[in-house]
Amino acid sequence: MKFAVFMTLFAAASAFSPAFAPAARSNSALNVERREVFSTIAAAGVSVAFASPALADGAKSTATKTRARGVYGGRIANLQKAVAAGDFGAVVAEKNAFVLFNSGAIVSSKQGAAIDATNAIFAAIRSQDKAALKKSYDSYCKQFNINALPDLTNDSQAQGYSNDYDFRVRTDAGKIYVR
């Protein structure tokens, strides 16, 4: 206890003591003492040595996979009528949904198969083959379990989401039942 009091008083007293500067020194960048340079280098080395690496924890978490499956899987599932009608433009307009679904909702071990299935869909579009488009789209949806979000707009007992950060907000699946 006495030592702590002594150190506190010593620190307070030394804070107000005058600092003695060396005799006339130029403020030029070329007039730097060797001691200052080495102390700066040592301080930088210590700060780098004790720096902790940045760790990103949300890149492939369950929450981001669920969000990608809900948002982009829902967009892909909504293309079912366009694929049945042979509307190539509607599928091309949702190309980013396929890319983002493949990278966000599919586990790394199955991403190659997902990319191949997506390439089959767009190969059918390039060849303007409606039957191949329908077959490859159906295969893709079945293989990766793509379903549309449920439509809860007319269900009076439904609870679609619980906070504003849920991916179902502002969709047909996002409805809060309030009594």
How are the secondary structure elements laid out?
Layout: H1 2-15, H2 34-49, H3 62-77, H4 80-85, H5 88-93, H6 95-104, H7 111-126, H8 130-143
Helix pairs in contact: 3-6, 6-7, 7-8
General description of the model:
Among the domains are: 82 residues, Four Helix Bundle (Hemerythrin (Met), subunit A) (Up-down Bundle); 31 residues, no CATH class. It has eight helices and no strands. The longest helix is centred in the first third of the chain and has 16 residues. The two termini are 62 Å apart. The model has no long low-confidence stretch (mean pLDDT 80).
Query: What percentage of amino acids are in beta strands?
Result: under 5%
Distance between the termini: 62 Å
- Mean pLDDT, to the nearest integer, reads 80
CATH homologous superfamily identity of the domain at 62-143: Sodium ion translocating NADH-quinone reductase subunit C-like
Low-confidence stretches: none
Please identify the structural class as seen in this structure. mainly alpha
Helix content: 40-55%
How many separate helices? 8
Q: Give the CATH level 1 class of the domain at 62-143.
A: Mainly Alpha
Number-wise, the strands total 0
Major sheet: size, sense and barrel closure? none
Compressed to H and E, one letter per element, the order equals HHHHHHHH
Shape: elongated
CATH A-level architecture of the domain at 62-143: Up-down Bundle
CATH topology of the domain at 62-143: Four Helix Bundle (Hemerythrin (Met), subunit A)
Q: What is the radius of gyration?
A: 32 Å
Pfam families: PSII_Pbs31
Keywords: Signal
Protein name: Photosystem II Psb31 protein domain-containing protein
Organism: Triparma verrucosa
